[in-house]
Amino acid sequence: MKNFWEDLPRPFTLLAPMEDVTDHTFRRLVQEVAPPNVFMTEFVSAEILMSTRPQKALPRLIIHKTSPEDSLDIPLVAQIWGLSPDAFFKAAELIRSKGFSGIDINMGCPARKIAKRGACSGLIGNPALAGELISAAKEGAGDLPVSVKTRIGLKKRVTESWASFLLDQNIAALTIHGRVAAQMSEGEADWDEIAKVVALKQSRTDCKTLIIGNGDVFDRETLATRMATPGLDGVMVGRGIFHDPCIFGNFQRSPFLEWSTQEKLELLARHIRYFNEDWKGAKNFDLLKRFMKIYTRGFEGHLELRESLMDSLCPQDVLAHLTPWLV
Known about the structure:
By secondary structure, the protein is an alpha/beta fold. The chain has two domains: 4-255, TIM Barrel (Alpha-Beta Barrel); 259-325, no CATH class.
């Protein structure tokens, strides 16, 4: 299988993996509105995936296709996390068999209970284990490319030493979020630190690892600015998708805030219908409520409507509240 990263335009865009956000339903919606060059799944625990009860993890590996015979129009990378090299090897084998385009290793999630166990951003302090996990994933992945997403440090910046170690691992791509884990999402992402990683890569004439920047890209103007960073191969957008679901639209479509009320709420209704079709009651409806603010902004009466939607108990309630607006 060809390494899809090699065929992407430069610079390219990615939608970040986000817990309870980037499931196949939301990816389907973004693909229809204004897709990035690469999608990623939610975080998938390799240990749970390879346990005797993988039911919690398997739904995160659903690939939306129009029909089973279809190929992926946009590369889809499965992101895994954990501490067991054996589970990483087996999870990578499974992901490869399911038809994903690549595998990404989460070495950046700042959640304290996870980092305290030494997983995700906790691996920044344990390069030996990080190297074992990368090797295990690469072995299980076969010809699938393996990448890593991380931060510039755990409690303090160790950008150059940590990035140097990861570049030594011969991974396909390295995404750098410009904060230390202790910051969570506070403060500003430091793109000067990301530029240091670009410079490190450029100093290695034989290094083929692609460098991706991530952090505080909330609108198209910022995305365009970051994409113009010299030497950077790609830009990943996370929370910015909540500000503008069309952020990857390259100005071919107006920003979402400028859409008409009818257009915004029709997209919400489409999201609700897709949620019903895809999950059929198997997924907690309340998880949809974090999306409500996306669609209910910038028109008269939006706060009252949002309050009603947040009080809804099921998808049918949401559609009922929307009916008077969709005329």
